[in-house]
Amino acid sequence: MRSFWAVRGNPDFPTRIHPALTSFADECCGMLARLIAYVGALALLAIVGIHLWDQLAVAEAAEPAAQADWGVASRAYPAFAVSQFDLPEKTKTYEIFRHPEGGRKDVFRWVVQGDNPVAELEIYRPRAEFDPSRPAASEIARRMPPEGGRELEAAGIIESKFGAVTLFRQAGSGDAQACLAFVKRLDEPNLQISGWSCQGDGLPARRAAIGCVLSRLILLTAGNDVKLAELFARAELRRGSCTASATSAASVDWVTSAENPALRGGI
Questions:
Q1: Integer distance in angstroms from the first to the last C-alpha of the chain?
Q2: Contact 108/92 with Cβ under 8 angstroms?
Q3: What is the DSSP letter of 150?
Q4: Could you give phi then psi for residue 197, rounded to 5 degrees?
Q5: Of 258, 102, 71, 67, the residue nearest 167 (C-alpha)
Q6: Are 141 and 148 in contact (CB under 8 A)?
Q7: Are strands 91-98 and 104-112 parallel, antiparallel or unpaired?
Q8: pLDDT band at 237 (very low <50, low <70, confident <90, very high)
Q9: Handedness of CA 43, 46, 52, 57 (dihedral sign)
Q10: φ/ψ of residue 233, rounded to 5
Q11: Bigger pLDDT: 110 or 11?
């Protein structure tokens, strides 16, 4: 008796693989090849995308760095002037710089023949770009001749129509002919007046030259800055005479002098 589960073999394919199985294997191989090609294409697109993203990131990083620099505002109107300040045989230049974040610098420079600078005055109205942790003296030191970048040390103070102004000189100079730097920081309005001077023979004369520059600094236009206009209006009421005696050696006491105070009598 023949078993019920017995299956009769196909006499046409006694030893070969069935065509259906072969076709299925071919389909699997083709699908695998297409899958590999697809994954490879995705990987290539991912590599290209990452490269483009990196290039975009570099460009975006470079753009703010380029915009962080101060630029000359050639169309801006002068806001300040230095009246009746005559330096014989010296040329005055006035430039205005603006920062993308809103700051403005009005810079006066006096030079002699050969473009040798002798004095500079900068009125800085800071905005969002201002970094209060950065000392103003370091920025002034970078601009001072003849060795820009030298560290500055205290050189006393002088009185001006804007109040007490701190003086600096290049550290270790100890020379009566050393140029003097100055800085006056104001909170209301947000303003910084700074610069340096090599004008005059000796420190007393250079202290007097700085005092004269500050005394003769006037405001031409405040725009919409009411506090700036009030500052200069009050300062003009305290404006003194611009003479060498105002900051001469005789007028320098132990408070304003950069040297150690000379004590009187025995201890």
A1: 140
A2: yes
A3: P
A4: -150, 135
A5: 258
A6: yes
A7: antiparallel
A8: very high
A9: negative
A10: -65, -45
A11: 110
pLDDT > 50? residue 253: no
Nearest-CA neighbor of 80 among 56, 104, 116?
104
Q: Which amino acid is at 227?
A: K
CB proximity list for 139: less than 8 A, separation 6 or greater: 194
Say whether pLDDT at 226 is over 80.
yes
Q: Are the C-beta atoms of residues 170 and 152 closer than 8 Å to each other?
A: yes
Q: What is the DSSP letter of 14?
A: S
Of 261, 257, 217, the closest CA to residue 239 belongs to 217
What is the DSSP secondary structure assignment for residue 134, as one 8-state letter? S
Rounded Cα gap, residues 111 and 93, in angstroms: 8
Residues with Cβ within 8 Å of residue 65, at least 6 apart in sequence: none
Output the pTM of the full model. Answer: 0.66
What's the DSSP call for residue 147? S
Question: What phi and psi values does residue 246 have, to the nearest 5 degrees?
Answer: -65, -30
Q: Which pLDDT value is given to residue 21?
A: 59
For residue range 94-110, list pLDDT tens digits in order. Answer: 999 999 999 999 999 99
